[in-house]
Write a structure and sequence with these properties.
14 strands; four-stranded antiparallel beta sheet; binds adenosine-5'-diphosphate; binds magnesium ion; Rossmann fold; 326 residues; Alpha-Beta Plaits
Length: 326
């Protein structure tokens, strides 16, 4: 598949976002978001539900206008050449974008027609997409007969049929079984690495971001925080969150740098909160260290990490950052 040539000025940056703000009425969703994405890069937009991922993707897709700030695509603003910019974009939306009355084959053909694929190439291109997505056994079924996972796979065919150099994917594997997810991840990687396409993928799954993305940006409460490295993301997404309530309460961070597996540490209303990886022995070492600080342990709560924890750890200017880098 040959990619459409980027517009006039060719740079290494595919998308550049600067000072972007957006509100729905009085609900401020994005606040001064800036980021850039290189050609052939897979950028993860990671954030909890309601963080504004879909809103940002819709602005990038030129479906919504920002209140402030702007976006350029290969150096060109949408306001300068809307049709040219749109020709470079393919959005796979989060909600279902299939015609439920058509068959799978019919939807593939419709995608090809909407993408202006030449009539003599429609058969070849839709067939290839069906094979790559393992949709061949389902070609004659109507969308009514498909499971949620199959519908998402069908929808992803749009990305394979389109030749736009920028793919905007909104939670593309939501509701797909693990095998189907891996298949789509591989296809996304191929699009970036072999075809040089730029991919921005919104997800609320740290595992997906870790498996797929070259770089990850966290989005929460309208602002972003970049993840320094995939290793850091992995540490944050696998660390158990331990909350230790003590008497007296903590007013400042204790000296516990001898505890193995410590990823992050903060104090939340006097409660010590620690991100901890590794064996349960590390938890015991932590608890001994807390006792050695002269406090009685009142309760210990252990749970898996959430996106909120990872984000808080990333934006905190606490000792956690230095601890993580030791
Ligand atoms: N069409 C809309 N009208 C008004 N508010 C909206 C609309 N779409 C989303 N929102 C609100 O904007 C915020 C961000 O939503 P969204 O971009 O869908 O987040 P995400 O994709 O990260 O879950 C939420 O508070 C949501 O309720
Ligand atoms: Mg969304």
């Amino acid at each position: 598949m040959s990619l459409r040539k980027p517009m006039d000025s060719i740079t290494d940056i595919a998308i550049s976002v600067s000072g972007l703000s957006f509100s729905y009425g009085t609900n401020a969703v994005l606040n001064q978001v800036s980021l850039s994405v290189g050609q052939g890069e897979v950028l993860g937009l990671l954030g909890p539900n309601g963080a504004g991922k879909t809103t940002l993707l819709h602005i990038l897709a030129t479906l919504l206008k920002p209140r402030d700030g702007g976006v350029t695509y290969f150096g060109i603003a949408a306001s300068d050449d809307l049709n040219g910019v749109r020709g470079n974009l393919c959005l796979i939306p989060q909600e279902r974008a299939v015609d439920i009355l058509l068959t799978v084959a019919g939807n593939l053909k419709l995608y090809a027609l909407l993408q202006h694929v030449r009539a003599n190439r429609i058969q070849e291109i839709t067939r290839k997409a069906a094979v790559e997505l393992d949709l061949v056994p389902h070609l004659r079924k109507t969308v009514f007969q498909l499971s949620g996972g199959l519908i998402r796979r069908l929808q992803f065919a749009n990305a394979l049929i389109s030749e736009a150099p920028i793919l905007l994917l909104d939670e593309p594997t939501l509701g797909i079984d693990p095998e189907g997810r891996r298949r789509i991840w591989n296809l996304i990687r191929d699009q970036a690495k072999d075809k040089g396409r730029t991919v921005i993928i919104a997800t609320n799954d740290m595992g997906e971001a870790d498996a797929l993305c070259d770089r990850v940006v966290f989005l929460r409460h309208g602002t972003t925080a970049a993840v320094e490295s995939p290793e850091r993301l992995k540490a944050l997404s696998t660390a158990t969150v331990v909350r230790v309530q003590t008497s007296p309460v903590f007013e400042q961070l204790p000296q516990v740098s001898n505890v193995p597996g410590l990823v992050d540490m903060s104090i939340d209303h006097g409660v010590l909160q620690v991100g901890l990886t590794g064996l349960s022995g590390n938890l015991l070492t932590l608890l001994y260290a807390v006792q050695d600080s002269g406090r009685a342990i009142e309760s210990v709560n252990v749970r898996p990490p959430s996106l909120e924890d990872a984000f808080a750890a990333l934006v905190s200017h606490s000792l956690g950052r230095e601890v993580a880098q030791e």
